[in-house]
Batch of 4 targets.
Target 1
Amino acid sequence: MNENNTLVDVRGVDKVFKRGSEEIHVLGGLDLQIPDGEFLALMGPSGSGKSTLLNLVGGLDRPTQGSVTIGGQRIDDMSDRKLAGWRARHVGLVFQFYNLMPVLNARKNVELPLLLTKLSASERKKRAAIALEIVGLSHRLGHFPRQLSGGEQQRVGIARAIVTDPTLLLCDEPTGDLDRKAGDEILELLQALNRDQGKTIIMVTHDQLAANRASRTLHLDKGRLEREVTV
Amino acid sequence: MKYFSLIFASLKRKKLRTMLTLLSIMIAFLLFGYLAAIKTGFTAGVEVAGVDRLITRNKVSLINLVPLAHRDDILQIDGVDLVTHNTWFGGIYQQPSNFFAQFVVEPEQYLELYPEYVLSDEEKESWFSNRTGVVIGSGLAKRFDWSVGDRVPLLAPIWGQKDGSENWEFEIAAIYEGAEQGVDTSQMFIPYDYFDEARRGGEGMVGWYLVRVSDPDRAAQIAEDIDRAFANSRDETKTEPEGAFIQGFANQIGNIGFIITAIVSAVFFTILLVAGNTMAYTVRERTNELAVLKAIGFTNTGVLGLVLGESLVLTAMGGGLGLLIAWLMVSAGDPTGGSLPVFFIPATDLALGVFLIVALAFVVGIFPARSAQKLQISDALRR
Amino acid sequence: MFNTLKQIAAVTRFSFASLPQRLGSSASAMLGIAGVVAVMVGVLSIAQGIMSTMTSSAGMGNVMVLRSGADTEMTSGFGGEDARLITEAPGLKQGPDGPLASRELFVIINLPMRSTGTDANVPLRGVEAAAAEVRQDFEIVEGRMFEPGLAEVVVGLGAQMEFSGLDVGSTIKVGTAQWPVVGVFSAGGGISESEIWSDARVLQDGFRRGNSYQSVHATLDSPDRFNEFKDALTSDSRLNVQVMTEAEYYSEQSQVLYNLITVLGSLIAVIMGLGAIFGALNTMYTAVSARTREIATLRALGFRSGPVIVSVLAESLLLALVGGIIGAGLAWLAFDGFRAATLNFASFSAITFAFDVNLGLLTLGIVFALVIGFIGGFFPAVRAARTPVALALREQ
């Protein structure tokens, strides 16, 4: 790996959860480098810590020990406030259950991250429209989540994730709730974003066929990296 | 500003629940506004009382008369500007339940002493030149639908006429307006000269004196001086500022202000409970949504602000509506049909209402907002 | 039928079992209802108290005579001779010293209120010896009755509690003289307890009234001799009087005050009741939505809608009942017997009374709470029963 091209640098990361008096070690001594522009899949049995790792890279949680550096910036020791701002700028999130606001229509859902910027209302509207076009949902701007199919909702989710032009796109089981056909469409979309726009994507999945779409797959088990498979 | 649409959208999440909470808040503020008007009905006299006016009455009892002869002595007191007298007429119009206050006055001096009873110069002239003419307030005129020129018969159990009957008849010479809200317009003023000529008994005696002082700061001192002038005489006096006299009556009616404050507090506490609980419940339901907002990049403070913002918008809409309806209801008039001399919502209470809206929004919203603020993303996020 | 009852019991038991989870919202709705009931009962108990005082003032078979045209004792007046004629009319009960009739004066003096220190108008009544018998519940509870012919007073229990300087042994200023307080009396909670009494003849002197009186209070031999008594007086050309039963007089006197408080109190209660209904609806809708899955599962299993409605309603009614009882209880504890004084517009003087939280009011309060509980539970109940099961099962 070319050192200068490393976007994500995880070193010596431990993560311990406290459940009452019990301590659960989810990650232990993890090292990981992800170059810019990679499409990475994380796989492993449940409890392996893959989602936890995703959270740490996305700044949604902090490691108990070790460092997480993204684009040269250390995020594990940032204050909550700075971390929020960092996430707004650098991370796009795609969830298994879409997590759209049911009270907002598709366009407003996509605009949500833009509320955190200084853009004017018309600018926000424009960018949201562009993002929705990229995911192929221009004709559904005004629809509410309950009026959209699962696949369509996930595409809105992706549009929301890319509307701020983030450094990283993190997807947690993005096709987990979709049928084969819809899932494939989503994976096509992700691949296109990675290939045509150079987006760095980290995707957690338990579906081997989905992982095949990535350029590299990492297997985790009991909080440690087991295997690496490169396409 | 841009967050407004997010706040409004969130409120629309459970329309029925939002509506019901809004209605509860509306009721609370409606009650607040209406009770403020009722309280004013009982206590307004005190606020508009003239700071430069004193009342001198018979020390033994309110119902005892004072001699006319006292007038000259009172005028001699240093600091006394104007002296005139009133006498309670106590007449009955058709039946006792139609009660309204009637005072026998010296027309010119009385109007000078009370600039808050407003009459045009022509109206004043027509009263002064009308021997049996009385002046009534606009509120009284509205209550019985009287106009200038109408004749009003009164039965006066206290004051019989020289011819033996107790029936008096007066002509309405003019109708006065109050210079500001809070001035009692439910009274009738009867000219003294006519009254004195026709009355049987009580010659040379009147009800009480009204004294204007040139320096309000010396009012208490002047009051003492007046009373000292008549100490140990056959008719000792008790003099006090008009405001104190009226307050004394308000106190006798009962500490209305306290009772009303207690009721309003009870109501607010109740509303607080229900609204606060609803908000807390709503935030608990939206844990996942709030976690997503944080994941996208909304700060902890931002999310706190969002929840507080929802609370404020809801409370402001409910409270504003409640105050508005109260204002409309109060404008419709006195619910007791005339027992209250004045009936309106004072501006200070409206301002207090607005302050309470903000305070309520904060108290109701702060706990749910704080739990939203402290929410840990990874705990709350649904995978 | 039996099946339905079993279903109702099962569903209701189920719902009550889950109540602890919804403790917060249930408790708040309940306290809300308690608050409304407490305030309503409290305010209306003022009107009840005044009414109680007024009605216990009127003795059975007692009559009052005033000058015709007078609306109160204060504005009435007749000469001593006329007053004597009144006491000699037929129909009055006879006592050992003559007819049970008291010619009386009614004046007002100023005394400071204990609570605020400001002056109040206190009624001072000049009475004759028979007065104590005419007011059947009259009883000296401290000190002694005043001596006829002496310038001394006895004070009513209510007056003593409300105004300063009325303890036995102190003096009050009447006219230009100081009169000692020699005793305290009770009168069955009636209006007399707000008054101060003295000998009529002595009071006449003190107030320079000559030989005039303002009213005659008397007891009839039997209540059906009222018309005989009344006709005899009204047909007498020497007299110009009106005759009424004490009960009539006092109910008229209290009318304005009673109406005022009842109108205002009811208005407040209705508005607050609306607020409580909205609060209860909110709570119940929330309660129902929390249990949507549970209710849908029951229905999917075969429980019918009826029992579901009943169980939701039962929960709402129970909450309301408990809230109502708490509120009524609070009102009773805090307000019953609370002494206060207000201005009797009719006599322009103080009337002391005790807040009266009686059984009728308590019942009214609880019924009110139940109405709120019913309305608050009915609509959510119907909604719970009518939501399509499949939809309800899917909802989170």
Note: Chain B has two domains: 4-44+255-382, 60-235.
Target 2
Amino acid sequence: MKLFIYILKRILQTIPLLFIVSLISFFIIRLSPVDPLAELKLNPSVSKETLQRETERLGLDKPIIVQYGKWAKSFVKGDLGITSNGESVAVKLKERIPNTLLLTIIVIFLSWIVGVPLGIMAAVKWKTPFDRMLTVLTSIGMAIPSFFFAVLLLIFAVKTGWFPIGGLTSSNFLEMSFSEKVFDITKHLVLPVTVLFTISLAGLQRQMRGNLLDVLDSDYVKFARAKGVSEFKVIFKHALRNAVNPMITLLGFEFAGLLSGAALTEYVFQYPGLGRLILEAVLRSDINLVMASLMMGAIMLVVGNLIADILLIITDPRIRDNGGKQA
Amino acid sequence: MRRRIISVLVVFIAIVLLGKACIRRDTVELEKPKLRPKADVIANNYKQPENYSLGGIDYLMSENPVGNFGGVMVLSTIGEGPKTFNPFNTKDNISSMMSEIMYDGLVTTQPITGEVVPKLAKSFEVDGCRYIVHLRKGIKWSDGKLITADDVVFTWKDIILAGFGNTSIRDSIIINGELPKVYKIDDYTVEFVTPQPFAPFLRMLASPIAPKHVFLPAVKKGKAYFDTFQSTNINPKDLVTSGAFRLKEYVPAQRVVYGRNPNYYEINKKEEKLPYLDRLVYLIVGDVNNEVLKFEGGELDVISLQGANVARFKEMEKHSDFTVYNIGPDTGTMYLSMNLNDRKDSNGKFYVDPKKQLWFGDVNFRRACDYAIDRKNMVLNIANGLGEPLFTPESLNSIFLNKDLKPYNRDINKAKELLRKSGFYWDKKGHLKDRFGNHVEFDLYTNAGNTEREAIGVMVKQDLEDLGMKVNFKPIEFNSLVNKLVSTLDWDMVIMGLTGSPLEPNGGKNVWMSNGTLHMFNQRLEKDMNSKRLPWEKRIDYLYEQGALAVNFEERKKFYDEYQKIVYEQKPFIYIYSPIRIVAIRNKFKNIFPSSLGGVTHNIEEIFIGDDN
């Protein structure tokens, strides 16, 4: 029950937050000098009447505050509006969300399943050559800019011909059998996943290593060791449980990045995900689409944090009792 | 300690080697590639399909070599891909291209000569204001229904003239407030009547024709519904089309796949139904770099090349499976314009500083700038030699190009002489002063991010500073620039580009008519519509009106020749150069006749994959 009230409170807190985020982003977009009709205005074959109609259709003839009001009203009702090309924003997003989720979930899954054990191993084998080697590799992984790495891999794909150059499916995808389809998508995913995985892995591994090292240094671990508890038990039963808390917070952020974390890589690999859609929308000042994606990002962040906090309450009795009192 | 140094060294060497592996040795910069005007020769071999009746059906017969059936051609489009598959709703080039693949028009443009030739129509007759179009008997939509006069009349009367979807065709054929009329004479004959002779109308007949039995229900539901009709979410099976290819699959942000239309009305000499190719794929790529990579990786069959890539591809061509074609000048034009506006804004302030008005309004000043500009140098250095200096508003491949207007080279002395004539002089430091002693200094704008225009800006600045002017070159964001050009009008000089039609100068009326929405060099806002016109502006207005009214090509050309001459002399726009279009196409494709007017795919139904592959 306490947990339930706590969640409810948190949800109520997000409402003013979302309001402020939407207000700021709406005004920044609309006050920027980007004119959604600039291309049309420079097209000699577009008549004045057409321009006028477009202005009215996009609501550009009204003051910004009225435009915002209109947008906010339909947003609250759950209607995301239409893009500047007249397509439904919700449909556009729905087209892309599965692709982005496919990419990011694979990356998150892989990097956690590899990164956390690697971090533990590095901490346990602290200052051995194994640890040092991992440190060097992860430093490279953290230092290399994702778009640059992506471009390098693309050139690699062109030179060797082993991987397709960007995209998600081959042009004859429709004619393939199911297993061929799976293989085709896998082939397309290898390079973008490699880029995102390398970068995400580096951060995770170091975080895990650092956390565990801190804990291994604490008195109760020393005490457990002195008591003669087996090393396996010391690490997995005592140290790890305490080292994992910051990782849960991190998981919350990863959740927020599910839909927006891969924009640059998506762009370089021409991956048909949300990132590319939104980048193109921003360049065109396609207000409804940009707003929808920004709000989605904000909501994902809030939800991600909420999930992380709840998980923390479950895993950590200290927070549970404390959180309970406050709530 | 030593081990540590060694391990650091090993890692370092590994990184260096890795880096080295990624670098290709720079090939020595060869001389600028000399491209044979190959495409002209090839294009001249192109044979236009002829009418051919077989079993009571009026087919079109391909006159080019007979080929093999099957295979795929992969092309690309840069940007976001199509926004709609309804050819009457398109607002951008990609959507129009993608939807017009599927829907043929009554007529089309002969890709070499630019003449109007029948397509969906069997023949047509023009008699002043009357256009009689005879349709092919027995040809079918992709769903097997006959294409008849009803479809044509419906398309024109109930969609285009009724103002459904994108109204740009309708807007451009309003003649003195009246619209053309369309009548059905019999099942295979349609008559169009324009309120008065209006030459551009003939090319408008190239607009796609819609199947009445599919579009009628949508039209009945009103304009708002029509705007969403046949959007990109449509099931491809629901499209009923007339073109050689029809939509098979659309994957957002990845590709558009077209399959053969089994009912297409063109046959080859063996009386087999075209098209040869099974599928036509357009990949949707985000930018030029990715497109080039995809071509090199073999995922693309055709690519348009620009700048430095041309030299590289020319080198690769020798040991690769593609050929680089020079298709000739592009329809794009790049120009330098001055603001001739001498009016005040609503606050009583001049749009352009009065002292600058005296400079820009002076034809000698404009001509001096023109002579000072080194077009050849720009073509060589900015366009990598792949361009042609330009002096006229009509692009170099336009069938209306006035060939009497001769190109000339940079002549700084002539420029100085012209300036002296208008009372300009140079002070001891070499600064140019007008006769009131004002130093000639102004801003030059272009849109930031367009590297080509930015490079031109730098060179124009240098060229003009040779005359002692001070030019402040300011590339600004595209949208802000457009705002300056069409709304706030507070600019001095600008480098811009426009694309025009090489077939129909009347498309430029928004630029050249003095009340046009893009009459940039002397833009009149709503409140200034009745302000005075310059004498040569009036003359161009007259020529544009007459040019549209005259029907005969020779007669029209006289009007358009004169307007080009006025622009050539008055220099409201100083044209700089026109880029040349270069494409690379894989050799396995046959019946390839790229042309300046038609591009690569004008005969897409005839293209096939040769035996040796």
Note: Chain A touches chain B through 52 residues (CB under 8 Å).
Target 3
Amino acid sequence: MAKVSDIVLWDKPGEKVLLLGNQAIARGALEANIAVYAAYPGTPSSELTDTMAAVAEKAGVYMEYSTNEKVAFETALAAAWSGLRAMTAMKHVGLNVAADTFMSAVGMGVEGGFVIMVADDPSMWSSQNEQDTRVYAKFANVPVLEPADPHEAKEMTKYAFELSEKFKHFVILRTTTRTSHARGDVVLGELPEEIKQGKRKFGKFKKDPSRFVDVPANARNFHPIILEKIEKIREELNNCPFNWIEGKEDAKVGIIAPGLSYAYVKEALAWLGVDNVKILKLGTPFPVPYGLLEKFLEGLEKVLIVEELEPVVEEQVKTWAYDKGITIPIHGKDLVPRIYEMTTRRAVTAIAKFLGVETPINFEELDAKYEKVKPLLPPRPPSLCPACPHRNSFYAIKKATKGKAIYPSDIGCYTLGLLPPLQAVDTTVAMGASIGIAHGLSIAQNGSLSEEQKSPEKQVIVATIGDSTFYHTGLPALANAIYNRSNVLVVVLDNLVTAMTGDQPNPSTGETPHGMGKRIPIEEVAKAMGADFVAVVDPYDIKTTYETMKKALEVEGVSVVVARQPCALYRIGQMRRKGEKWPIYQVNEEKCTGCRACINTYGCPAIYWDEEKKKARVEPTMCWGCGGCAQVCPFGAFEPIEGGSQ
Amino acid sequence: MKEYNIVITGVGGQGVLTAANILGWAALRAGYKVRLGEVHGMSQRFGSVISYVRFGEDVYGSMVPEGKADVMLSFEPVEALRYINYLKEGGMVVVNTKPIVPVQVSMGMAKYPSLDEIRRIFEEDFKAKWIGFNAEELAEKAGHVVTTNTVLIGALTQVPEFPLDAEHVREVIKISVPPKAVDVNMKAFDLGIQAAKDILGL
């Protein structure tokens, strides 16, 4: 098929295409004549940013991969202040990083449309928590739109810009993994002339300190402005094209279905074969439009709210109903779980219970049958790729510390160093937290440099953090550790890209999507900050990496070792495209003693145990030729053969 | 047609997402409403993965519920078994029988079940129909191991009452792969079709 970056720019209104929710949002932003886009990648939002990166130059949109969500937010916000349509995107926890600016600037409003796309991850497929962004919307008094499918995501994006401009207010476009990473049929709309011609748009910032300087005297005016705006928006949303009532008009029972839950409710009702219900489809879970709600509740004897995660809609509906003296039963979190993602099964189970009917299949019976299968399933958690340089770094760190250090780590692929056999991750919390936690542990475990406080046996602490995470929020933590005379080793796992989210560039890469930016070598930053020991190593050379770690551990103070080697997945992808070959290793059965050192201490997914021969073997289709196994094997059993590229 | 549900399972990196995308486009071109469900990010790194392909008049969400898949296309035997509860009673599984042994099994922390046992559970306990063969071998025969997913998609098109025409699917593969890889993929597709026909006695 045509490349997505081409499809997203197709000037073919009415054409039906298959797009990922995130790609559909990118198309929506283009149809809305967006001028500035800035974001830091984060699953499940990343493909939106990558799609914008791929089309920005042709569409005349300024696009950047920012160093973190707060900076991205400010970049897009200032563009919106200058009268341009601007967007930023992030995963749910990214809004925590941007929250300081978000919460303070909301009262200042915007001039051009400003859309904050936030992708939540219920069930945490690739996340550290499952916070519900709709709660943030309520907290900040900002409207939140939530689409039910990719096409609606595109249409909502356009509407979000219009709504933001009309009320000069922020608008959140909230998705979840199942919309961002769902592909569906999307009908293309018109592209504005400026986008088609690729003409860059520029704005103008009009000074107004009473609005843009939030000293207390000014800030005191913000809160009433925000509250007035949100109530006007609530009114407006009675006529929002993404909110409607459907189903049997004279039905006695009703279901409220916000966002993506609408899709599950529709499917559940079809599966149950039930049609005597009224549905309130809500594209705007906050603020709930009360006019529409009132109309919906007319004649109903009971209501169920099928809502994912927090009872955001439920609380609004119940509060409003109480004030109105409406006393019909309103069900919600008593029937619908508050944890993990919504599924058709959950919707069908809740609705069946609510209506007092049987579920279409007997789920308990199915579960009981599946329970018997479970013990037979070997676990297959995600793992560091074959040839991943992080594996070698962890291996060297573990060896240099004899496994006795505490290993605070961070958010990225290398979090997978948690798993056996490496087990070199003791804590991960949030982006950039490794260094702060390491410093705190150093103080708590008497590892800091104040002599009189030192215990006889120093606890060694080794933090690991990726290059992108280092620039995201690692910088202030490193400054703090150096300034406060911490005693830790910080290993920056520098694979030159933001690998976990799809190999996006960052300051360590140097490149931007549109040519060269300015590369910032991490070791120069560490030196400039005053680290007590700084070295750069190639983790593919395990011996040197190990020796450097040993040396760094002997230094009192903050040591920084930059372990630099390109992401293997990225490198292999490039080699495949160019048709290049790499060596493939295999086990010389005569040399292999079956000691399992490779499997039990190194753990490359390409190496497996041959139960019959009692020897290690390499799966040739998975070997990416780093040669780490050959360095780890005490008997030299791994040997390269002439390989073909996969 | 109300709905047709496919689950595709395997190990991250095997081409599960690519297969889902090809089937999705083929369904779109056949005029169906389409939903594909995918998981990106951390799970992609050599972990267990599942993708969903749904099309018809009555599809809304992107995930196939448990007990509702008409057919399962699996790139790896244990990854077929892991998601067996998605298959409806009497559903069909098209599976590559070449195992990928997880690190945990090599470390002796878990056991890999035998192929016979996996097949027995599908056929006896879950009343499913089994189309199992070594698709990797056929891919190598076609010219390259990366065409394993094309072999499997070819076999899938032979499932009784499969709503997409094999030639339509072939067309999408042809325009999806790089020009120099068209021939091997077409060969792989045909080998997959033949393998399924042989097993089904067509």
Note: Chain B touches chain A through 64 residues (CB under 8 Å).
Target 4
Amino acid sequence: MTAERGPRRALFLALGSLAAVTAAAVAAGRWLDIVAVSGRSMAPTLLAGDRLLVEAFSYRRRPPRAGEIILAADPRRPSRELVKRIGGVDPSSGSAELVGDAPDASTDSRSFGPVDLVDVRWRAAFRVWPPGRVGLVR
Amino acid sequence: MLTLRSLLRPTRRVYAHCDIPCGIYDPEQARIEAESCLRIIEKHDASDDKLFRARCIHVKEERAELVKHHLDVLWHDYFKPEHLEKHPGIHETFWKATKQASKVKQTMDVAAAKELLLMIDSVDEMWKATGGPEKTRVSGRPA
């Protein structure tokens, strides 16, 4: 019994501190955030009502890459933040094509053109809700 | 107190956006308005009533404007760049058809109205070739 308790306590401690750090970061809202998804253009990857943990670390170190799911302001209505996948990156112009995983039900770069890479700050990392679909977003 | 629920509460909403998520796009809409134009021109020509003829001109211009609108919606919103790869004639076809709709708006020319119907039919062909009926029609429509 005692032999088990040590590692288990360590695990709890580790998970607990990870949660605390996450909580602090989310509270700060600058590096990590929780967002709710609306709309179905990213189906089946993301569905309406999904909650995502988004992070703003990666793109301070490197530009977004094709295939990543990101947040970006809608060029036609900047107050609306879109969640889309990066279809392709053009380093020479510093822009990215945004696409939806459901192309027949998506308004994206095919309509509004490419977006500037510098405006892409947030990457979707993890789905935290609903419980049955918790996991990495890819 | 910090709970799991408060931790997972979203701070903002992000949009997997689509302008019209269940978009209905159907060249028949343009076709029906164009058929109205043709019939109105025929009725205009068959009548001696000055007032009726004036109304025909007025209504026909409205209908022709609707043809342009419906064609534009198909052009901008239904057809996507991947369709253009397989059907390189899309832009040319729409350009000519919308110009023809303008001509029908401006004139009382039966032949021009018939020509417009043929052009809408070629839009319809491209729409069908790209899977339009399966993608945009609600099933259960009477044959």
Note: Chain B has a mean pLDDT of 89.
